[in-house]
Amino acid sequence: MIIDRLLGIVDILDFHERNFKMKPAEIQKVLAGCELFKGLDPSEVKNIAKMCRVNTFKTGALVYQQGDFGENIYIIAKGQVVLERTVDMESREGRVIIATLGKGRVFGCWSTLLDEPHIMMLRTFCQTPATILVLNGAQLREGMISDARLGFNVMEKLCFLLRERIQSAYGAMERM
Fold first, then answer.
1. Is the pLDDT assigned to residue 109 strictly greater than 50?
2. I want to staple 77 with a disulfide (CB 3.0 to 4.6 A). Which of 21, 30, 47, 170 is the partner?
3. Is the dihedral of CA 58, 59, 61, 62 positive or negative?
4. pLDDT tens per residue, range 31-85
């Protein structure tokens, strides 16, 4: 377990280039088109964009490991990401792909929007080179609390998103 964690850290260091530069207008365009923020007022998107940092990942790079502490929400600007869950099947361990996500799709730690600590339930890695916006959930929560309209709109979108992810998880379990 410790060796796996260390190898995961090495993978992240080997394949992950932090703080890739994107213009603010490009970040806003990605956010305005993503499933969580589509339809928000441009001024709301602009404020959310200020909270984002941009990371790039090479093919095979881990975004996070199952079991990691979660505090961020991730928005795919470019590339494809696989959401995979490792399950204990008594006599063996299996991996199940929950979804493959592309541009405009969102993944990560939703619990931070509720001000709850969370352990990541999936391993997430890049199927192709990817540019990903990273948004701290606690920062977004603060913005949602201070602007009730924004908070309602984001939570409504989140409900639809989570419904889709739960359906994907059920579908993955049926294929096992």
1. yes
2. 30
3. positive
4. 999 999 999 999 999 999 999 999 999 999 999 999 999 999 999 999 999 999 8
Give one word for 39, left, alpha or beta, with left for phi > 0 and alpha for psi -120 to 50. left
Q: Which SS3 state, helix, strand or coil, does residue 124 take?
A: strand
Element counts in the chain: helices (H) and strands (E): 5, 11
Write out the residue range of the structural domain in which residue 99 sits: 2-140+148-174
* Tens-digit pLDDT profile for residues 114-124: 888 889 999 99
Q: d(Cα 40, Cα 122) in Å, to the nearest integer?
A: 28
Structure tokens that stand for 86 in this block: 């490792």
List the structure tokens of 57.
């990942």
CATH number, domain of 152, equals 2.60.120.10
- Alpha carbon distance 56, 19 (integer Å): 7
In whole angstroms, how far apart are CA 141 and each of 45, 82, 101, 137, 150? 14, 26, 24, 6, 10
* Rounded to 5°, angle at Cα 66 from 65 and 72: 70
28 DSSP assignment: H
Q: Which phi and psi (to 5°) does residue 105 adopt?
A: -90, 155
Tell me how many domains the chain contains: 1
